[in-house]
């Protein structure tokens, strides 16, 4: 199970959602069927940056409940051009380990983040490397 994400998600960013199933009560939309240790709800005001880091071993899915953000990413320690993707309401994004990533929230946004590692401060800080790749004006 641990390496399932590598086969299915490692070379992806936006994830094709699995089919939802429902009845007269409503529906259930599967998001993440991997072993994880954290689920967080994050609210961000428009015009704010988050992330600007990479994770050594952690991965996370981000499901957009409301709003949108620009997702900037590239492989860590590479000279690749930074890629940009707009992630909007109802989309699921996957970020694997060793991916530089940052998000610019273009609208007031609510997201659900599901992560492999727990989000206690000690575990998070040991796995997260802060970088500042978004200040390079030659990135695009």
In short:
The protein has 2 helices and 12 strands; from the N terminus they run H-E-E-E-E-E-E-E-E-E-E-E-H-E. Strand 2 and strand 3 (26-28) form a beta hairpin.
Topology:
Elements: H1 4-9, E1 14-15, E2 21-23, E3 26-28, E4 38-44, E5 48-55, E6 60-66, E7 68-75, E8 83-88, E9 92-95, E10 99-105, E11 109-115, H2 121-127, E12 128-130
Antiparallel strand pairs: 1-9, 2-3, 4-11, 5-10, 5-12, 6-9, 6-11, 7-8, 7-10
Relevant terms:
140 residues, mainly beta, Jelly Rolls, 5-stranded antiparallel β-sheet, 2 helices, 9% helix, globular
Tell me the overall shape.
globular
CATH fold-level label:
Jelly Rolls
Uncertain residue segments: none
Q: How many domains would you count in the coordinates?
A: 1
What top-tier CATH class fits best?
Mainly Beta
Number of helices: 2
* Class from helix and strand fractions: mainly beta
Radius of gyration using CA atoms only: 15 Å
How would you describe this protein?
With 140 residues, this protein is mainly beta. It has one domain: Jelly Rolls, CATH 2.60.120. It is built from two helices and twelve strands; from the N terminus they run αβββββββββββαβ. The longest helix has 7 residues, at 121-127. It is globular. It starts with a helix and ends in a 10-residue tail after the last strand.
